[in-house]
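Please review this one.

:::
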Amino acid sequence: MGLNEKIYDLIIIGAGPAGIEAGLQAEQIGIKALLIDREEAGSVIANTMSGKRFYHAYGRNAEPPGGLLDFPDRKKGGELVDLWRKQARSLAYLPNTVFETIENVAGNGTYIIITNKGNFIASRVILATGIFSKPKRLGVSGEEGNASIAYEFDYNDFITDKKILVIGGGNSAVETALELSLDNDVLLIVRKPNISETITERNRAELEREITGGSLRIFYNSNILSFNSDEATIQISGEKITDRFDKIYINIGYESPSEWLKSLLFELAPNGLPILFANLETSRPGIFVAGALAGSDSIIGSANQAIEIIKYIARK
């Protein structure tokens, strides 16, 4: 299929695990699809998690992969991205293509997808862009513009013999704390009484082991009151303490891109993500979402959502 063709059965926006799986499934059953991405396939993982190992069992997923996405267990992110980019290039695929909006074609049930590389027409669209663009802030004094604070841990960085503060209770925060505790003094602050229920068993076991071994400290029901350069004022069990840290990581999730989604005319749920109907279809008929936009927290979960959508489209 030539990339100069403008009319497709399906446009897939986002070349992460969900988007690539959707493209592979579509090609296998003869659906004419185009996969586009604003960067290269797998860019989120390539940019910050190329050194991180990825496991089949993660988040709410405990199943082995059942689709076409090449995902060997326990491989590092960079290795997976190399595999995925090879798969993406086997499809009708346009990297470095910035998606702008989706317009209705009046009366005939199709859509115009507007990009910086031209417009494309399709009767079905899968939005698999993820939500990892704007990390949540704590909103406390001294946070904005603070050079000591990062919102993502770059697994390509080598950090040793530093005093580290990590804030958050989900998988990202726990994994950041575990990775850094190997060669650093790490304090993990959890604002709630417990770590998140979605923490993987592997992360939970490793966290307990590191705490017991003394290489990582953790405090629950604790809050960050303010920052002053590399100093953090923390309320722990009613006591206010101030300490300095070489690096501070805030891993408390990501803002839903609600304003952008509203601009695409989706009906949104209270969490700012699209309201979903059967088979992950949005309030705009023929437009589906997969991956983080559909609540998935794992590679396999995202790929399985793509499989569900393609099976539904094939039946229509």
Remarks:
- The mean pLDDT is 93.
- The CA atoms of residues 124 and 286 lie 5 Å apart.
- The domain at 7-133+254-315 is CATH 3.50.50.60 (FAD/NAD(P)-binding domain).
